[in-house]
Amino acid sequence: MSNPADQTSRDAIIYDTNTSYFVEAGAGSGKTALLVERILTLLIDEGVPLSSIAAITFTVKAAEELTNRLRAAFTEIAEHGTFSRFGDEVRTFDHPQAKTRAEQALAALPGAAIETLHSFCLRLIRMYPLEAGVPPQITTVDEIETSFATVNRADAVIDLVDRIVSDDPTAQDALAELNLGIPFENIKESIAILTEQGLKTADIEKLVLFMDPLWGVLDATVAAPLPSIQFLTRADLESARREIQEWVDLAPGDVVEDKLFQVKVDPLIKELDRLIAEDKPNYDVPAALGLREGNAGNKTIWGVAPKTYRDRMKEIGAEFERKINSPIVRSISVLRRLIATIVRDNAQARRRTGKLEYHDMIFLADELVQIDYVRQELSENYRMVAVDEFQDTDGVQLRIVDAITAGKPGHRFTVGDPKQSIYRFRGANVNTYLSARQQAEKRGELLQLTANFRSDQEVVESVNAIFGEMFASVESDENDPTAPLTVPYAPMEASNSDSGFVAMLRRPEMNSGAGVPELCEHADIISAVKNAEVALSDIAVLVAKNETALGVQKALREHGIPAITEGAEKVYKDPEVEELIAVLRAIADPANGFVEVVALRGLYFGVSDQDLVESHRARRMGSEIAEDHPAIVAAEHLKKLRKRAASMNVAQIVEMVIDELFILGHLARPETVEKNPSIRRVLDDAHAFTNATNAGLSSFLRWAETQTEGFTGVSVPVLDDGTDAVRIMTIHASKGREFPVVILGGLTGEKDRTISHGLHPETGVVEFGLKGIGTDGLDEFKAFEKLATMGENVRKLYVAATRAKHQLIIPLEAKLTGGTPTKPATTYASTQGKYFYDSLNPDKDLIDPRELFSADAVALPHPRPQIDAERIRATYNKNAKDAEAEPPEMRLLTATYFAHAEETAQLAAIRQLGADEGWLTQTTESFFKTDREARGQTFGTVVHEVMDYFAKQGDRSDTDTVPETDTVLNVVTTVASINGLEPDLIDEASSIVETFLNSEIVHAAFAAPHYSEVPIIGTLADTAFEGVIDLLYQDETTGRWVIADYKTDSVVTTQRINEYFTQLQVYAHLLDMDVCRLELLFVDGGVVRCITRGPSD
């Protein structure tokens, strides 16, 4: 394969380690492979220890990928002294210590600084806890607990504001401690003004949630001067009156007949005269004073362009409005200082306790590296700090990296692509990147990677043509410090000679106004999917918003096309979860009759509207109603739930409601069983909330509201089991991935709206408004935000388009607007796809999909190599198919629970059924004790997840393919860190896994057709069951199936073995396949002890 045109830059990245390169890497350029090779040069050729390298990634997943690539590279070099590059090229390391250095790097890999920036900052803080102002032992708080805490902190601010309004003495004490520099009475007056203006608790909460993760950059906000209060006085009115009268007096013509005079000037003079006659100390001029801009006036009559006077009238109006609103603007500024100060104080409290949230790590590390000797020591310790996805950084993160690497050539290495900067909602600032880029270019450190190894020729050329123009069209002003900087477009060069295919679709009926945009777009997507000659799982529909993804999924499924969404289904927007939340609201707020009605008529109480009307009418008329009336029964049930909830914490309340209303049973039907993870997630969140806070149900519900908004809400977990179905996801979710066929969806939807609050682009002060009146810099912020949003929208479309390998389909079905009865519309509506229309020639570039695609094409899932797994799923879905008429007491149980739970009437009935039908029997195995100590549930989880990993690594028929000890240890270390297993148990877990892997029974299972972590769902005796089979494999002698279960018990009793086999017998029965054997696999004395029985022995 010939070298790409940018090979010189690639060689410099790999071999020139004494220059701090700023690499601009286009989509599909292979940047991660180059970063790996630069690290290899430092470690293997130059002998730099891995502990002196920091590689900072944007996501945990990216860190894991880089770690895995390095592990593979170190392993290969340690064994052969070579490294296999892309294609058939091999890099040979000639240094005599190359293999030894690779072995050393491999050993050091588990503790290497290959991690996200948050983790790297935490590493620095732990190195210097005293200097960072934290205790020696610090703990980190995960995102879910942080979100709980933030909502609680917002509640605390709201409570303080309430106490200020009510003149509570404790509020004065609290404000005195904050040292705001504002008298209490002024604060109280400001809040009263804002309350009259319409301030709501939601406004305060929004500001706290915005400022909380930004506490480290709030100094400018706290220090921002409070604007003075100005009044509109009689002198102001008189001055305006004189100026306007001069226009009339100096006009060369007769203004009386002029429209500008009649409509604007004369009415304004008369209104000013009326106000001046009132002789008040200050005025509140009505908005309809006549100062609006218009287009009337004759230049000959006035002697100047009428626009000059119209503009001046507008300026006068703005001056009047500024003075009238100044008390409100000052009050908003007081509230801003109050909240910012509280947010900073909260952060300092977390610092003192050592309980750190993610954003704390960044800001504390930023403060830390400003200490001279700390910065010097870190600079000497780290030979290279590499930053991937540098376009998604911000000023604080850049400052940290610069502090460690400044003045050290080759110590900093950054890789990014400004065209892919799409994380502004997380604080990423492309201006930071572009400013750093300008400095790097001046120093001669800028390198550009333009070769694209991902996409076919036509895809690359089309993306260049479209987006080259689209990026150039984004508005900016290089001379305005408050304007976003322009992102340059560097054309890509296709390294793949295959032709590829790109089509931009539009139906003629859209031009005549007869088409419905969303329906036409869905039709385009369906046609493209049906005609794509690839597996459905090779097709990705990429959209900007989660709601759009769900709409596309529905349209595809309605046409018989399997489709799954990734991350689009928000847990707290799930209808079944919303119904649960409705019940919880009714419990939390018993005085609110409306929420009670919503709960009673919902899914889980199921009272009809007619029954509710009858109950309401009976209460109103004072007439009797039967005690067993559905509305009365449900209301009484709700009352009992409220009474019981009074003495419970949040987790107990949620668990009680789920249990009492048989919610999991309601959802056990085949068509709704997939909703179970969402309900379980709510329960998990309730437990986490209870563990993290002392707050009650109302606070939990307030937090749940925040999970329905934008990018913040938790998503329904998606298990991608290889199902042949179209993938639908947001553009953000597609970042870093590639697909054979990409279809852009949602282009008929509205453009993203700009946010109403944020940091001023130049001063860094928080700007926000209330009811159209805002802080002094709000207008400048909004102007910046409008341009920044436009630029990011273009970049998101670029990211989406560059995910395509072979085919890129772009449906463009927006409405045409601006037409009249005599003139056809020619302007495309302002939609997500508007940027495409502005960059294309509609007559030349747009194709009618009916001319391109066959209407007879049918989308069929491609045959899967694991066809037996499909039969398994079909079988246990079939088991639950007739469950629609299940009794209300139906509950979803796990097979594990059934096996180990104390006997109940329900469980006894199921056991009797199993005994009668012959598939459930007891064992007489003897008690035994292994040579190990009990290690708990987390230990077992780690072992199971690692075994699942190796089970999916392909054919193990060759003895040489058994993983090496170091490989096992590395995987266990990674999984252990994810699950929080104590470090001193990692070696033992590795030993257990290695014993399993080297056993004859597991080795034979992995060599045969096998499946790991197989989900089971079905019904027994009208009870829904679920579970997971650790290992299902085919016996090579009989061709029948074996169910195996890994066990990490230290003490094994006869009862415990009976319970385990009961669990496996349930699996075998629900599986409804030809199962010949059940196996329990224990590790004892360094070998695997297998206890075996038939499925119904």
UniProtKB/TrEMBL annotation:
Residues 4-456 form the UvrD-like helicase ATP-binding domain. Transmembrane segments: none annotated. Its EC number is 5.6.2.4. Keywords: ATP-binding, DNA damage, DNA repair, DNA-binding, Exonuclease, Helicase, Hydrolase, Isomerase, Nuclease, Nucleotide-binding. Residues 472-736 form the UvrD-like helicase C-terminal domain. It holds the Pfam family UvrD-helicase. ATP binds at A25, G26, A27, G28, S29, G30, K31, T32. GO terms for cellular component: cytosol; exodeoxyribonuclease V complex. GO terms for biological process: recombinational repair. One of its GO terms (molecular function) is DNA binding. The keyword Cell inner membrane does not apply. It catalyses: Couples ATP hydrolysis with the unwinding of duplex DNA by translocating in the 3'-5' direction; ATP + H2O = ADP + phosphate + H(+). Coiled coil: none annotated. This is DNA 3'-5' helicase. It comes from Corynebacterium aquatimens.
